[in-house]
C-alpha cells in the first residue's frame, strides 16, 4: 500500500484544522529534506516528488513523499515525527 506524506503534517505552525497530523510535542519546522532523512533512516521504500504541493496550501510547501508500506498512515507519520525529534 502506498501512502503520501506532506511536510504540512509535521509543521509546528499549523493547527490540526490546517493539516498538522501530529501532536504539538512531536511537531517541528517541517522541511522536505529533514523528512527524507528520517524516512531513509527508518528503512522505508519511498519516492520523492518535489514538484507536488499540499492541496490545502497549494501556493507553498513544495514536495511530498510516497512510501510503500503495510503500516497505517498515522503510525508511519508518528514514527517519522519521533525520528526527526531524535535527530
How would you sum up this structure, described in words?
The chain has 87 residues and is α+β, with helices and mostly antiparallel strands. It has a single domain, classed as Signal recognition particle, SRP19-like subunit (Phenylalanyl-tRNA Synthetase, Chain B, domain 1), CATH 3.30.56. 29% of the residues lie in helices and 23% in strands. Strands 1-3-2 form a three-stranded antiparallel β-sheet, with helices on one face. Helix 1 packs across helix 2. The protein is globular, with a radius of gyration of 12 Å.
Give descriptors for this structure.
87 residues, Phenylalanyl-tRNA Synthetase, Chain B, domain 1, 3-stranded antiparallel β-sheet, 29% helix
Percent helix = 25-40%
Instruction: Tell me the span between the first and last alpha carbons.
Output: 27 Å
Would you tell me the structural class of the helices and strands?
A: alpha+beta
User: SSE order, as H and E?
Assistant: EHEEH
Output the number of helix runs.
Answer: 2
Overall shape: it is: globular
Please state the CA-atom Rg, rounded to the nearest Å.
12 Å
Question: Which fold does the CATH topology refer to?
Answer: Phenylalanyl-tRNA Synthetase, Chain B, domain 1
What's the number of extended β-strand segments?
3
What is the assigned CATH homologous superfamily? Signal recognition particle, SRP19-like subunit
Identify the strand order in the major beta sheet. 1-3-2
How many structurally independent domains? Answer: 1
Strand content: 15-25%
- Average pLDDT for all residues: 93
Please report the first level of CATH classification, the CATH class: Alpha Beta
Taking pLDDT < 50 over at least 5 consecutive residues as the criterion, the unreliable ranges are none
Amino acid at each position: 500500500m502506498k501512502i503520501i506524506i506532506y511536510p504540512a503534517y509535521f509543521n509546528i505552525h499549523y493547527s490540526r484544522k490546517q493539516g498538522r497530523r501530529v501532536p504539538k510535542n512531536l511537531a517541528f519546522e517541517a522541511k522536505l529534506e529533514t523528512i527524507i532523512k528520517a524516512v531513509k533512516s527508518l528503512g522505508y521504500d519511498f519516492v520523492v516528488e518535489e514538484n507536488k504541493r499540499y492541496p490545502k496550501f497549494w501556493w507553498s510547501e513544495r514536495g511530498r513523499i510516497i512510501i510503500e508500506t503495510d503500516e497505517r498512515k498515522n503510525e508511519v507519520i508518528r514514527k517519522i515525527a519521533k525520528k526527526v525529534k531524535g535527530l
